[in-house]
Amino acid sequence: MISVEEAKNIILNATQNFGVEEIPFIKSVGRILKEGIVADRDFPPFNRVSMDGIAIDFNVFQNGQRAFKIEGIQPAGSPQITLQNKENCLEVMTGAVLPNNTNVVIRYEDVVIENGVASIQIDAVKDFQNIHAKGKDRKSGDILINKNKVISAAEIGVLATVGKSTIKVAKQPKVMIISTGDELVEVGANPLPHQIRRSNVFTLVSLLERLNISSETDHITDDKHILKQKIENYLKQFDVLLFSGAVSKGKFDFLPEVFTELGVKKLFHKVAQRPGKPFWFGQTENCKIFAFPGNPNSTFVNCLVYFYPWYYQSVGVEVQEETAILKEDVTFKPNLTYFLQVQLSDKFGHLLATPIQGNGSGDLASLVNADAFIQLPSNKTVFKKGENYPVIRYR
User: Fold this and answer.
1) Could you tell me which residues are beta bridge partners of residue 157?
2) How does DSSP assign 81-147, residue by residue?
3) CA-CA distance, 336 to 36, in Å (whole number)?
């Protein structure tokens, strides 16, 4: 049995590159950008009017003139026009190019227009007032979005602005999620007294969807021959196999034996943690195998603690560790890393973690009452209120 830290290091040393694909930018939310996005021109690309109003020459105003004859109008989206007489003005709309021979925009709220003459009602203006200067935000050639960024709605707007109709993103792994066990029936079935409905596989599907990873699912009964036959095919077809169940010491926990017979290299089996101790991890040349214990909370926490960091490192995303402060004392005597379910709250900018009492790793319903797991180290038995520890959010 190895420590959580050792297990993480082994997994992070077994990352893989899924390659790069080009997709429409509008379909890229949640994907990992694999190219730097640069400004194709200055931002904004021209001196941009930022208020509806009139454009004038600053020096004329400074010389005391307050009434300006309106020569014309500069709408947004129209080619730049020129103020012919500097003692006159032009009406301008938000987003329009600033007309030639003007350098101040006065808001409509600060002028009165009568008979084609705009009279300014304020006594002071600033040079280049209400004008968004060309190149103020970014210069042509500047990096706007760095490679390996997770794309959100904010990035979509920038991609559209620079004309990137298609972009390069990390390919997602091809994943198969497999549940095992004769006690499991389908979600829509009425289970007999000795049966339960499948749930772990759909939890894993949803956890992967948070990463924008699509997955396929299968359920295999506790028959070693069928297990071996199906897994042999899946090892050739998928980048990742995620299992729930059949990795402990039960007489029908065939997976470790099947993996060995299929030539899968075991990297570890059993981690000094609770929940999720019987976790098995291995690989072939082209496929990684995460075989989680079958108890619901064990499957859940192991996916967050191990598969998520493995995926992020595989696609080049850096994730910052988050910590929280215990709101209550906790005692845990086994010499194991303890992933304790907690509710999170914020007080004066500090993240607080309130422990949730569950009924062990099989208590699926307890996950609904919590927001995260707090990771308590194995070298202590008493954890005091006010102490700070890493948290793994799932909300």
Assistant:
1) none
2) -B-SSTTSEEEE-TTPBPPBT--EEEEGGGEEEETTEEEE--S---TTTTEE-TTSSB-TT-EEE-T
3) 43
Please tell me the distance from the alpha carbon of residue 170 to that of residue 20, in angstroms, as a whole number.
Answer: 5
d(Cα 391, Cα 84) in Å, to the nearest integer? 66
**How far apart, in whole angstroms, are the C-alpha atoms of residue 305 and residue 300?**
9
User: For the chain, percent helix, then strand, then coil, each to nearest 5?
Assistant: 20, 35, 45
Q: Are strands 53-56 and 111-114 parallel, antiparallel or unpaired?
A: unpaired
Domains of the chain: 4-18+172-315 (3.40.980.10), 21-38+144-170 (3.90.105.10), 48-132 (2.170.190.11), 322-393 (2.40.340.10)
| Cβ pair 87, 60 in contact under 8 A | yes
Residues linked to residue 33 through DSSP beta bridges, in sequence order: 169
SS3 292: strand
Per-residue pLDDT 10s for the chain (395 aa) are 999 999 999 999 999 999 999 999 999 999 999 999 999 999 999 999 999 999 999 999 999 999 999 999 999 999 999 999 999 999 999 999 999 999 999 999 999 999 999 999 999 999 999 999 999 999 999 999 999 999 999 999 999 999 999 999 999 999 999 988 656 656 666 766 665 556 678 899 999 999 999 999 998 877 888 889 999 999 999 999 999 875 765 554 788 889 999 999 999 999 999 999 999 999 999 999 999 987 888 999 999 999 999 999 999 999 999 999 999 999 999 999 999 999 999 998 999 999 998 766 656 677 888 999 999 999 999 999 999 999 999 98
Alpha carbon 120 to chain centroid distance? 50
Largest CA distance in the chain: 96
Helix, strand, or coil here: 16?
coil
Name every residue whose Cβ is closer than 8 Å to that of residue 166 and which is 6 or more positions away in sequence. Answer: 22, 23, 24, 25
Task: Say which residue the tokens 């595989």 belong to.
Answer: 314
Closest-CA residue to 149 (of 312, 305, 368): 312
Q: Which two tokens stand for residue 257?
A: 């034996």
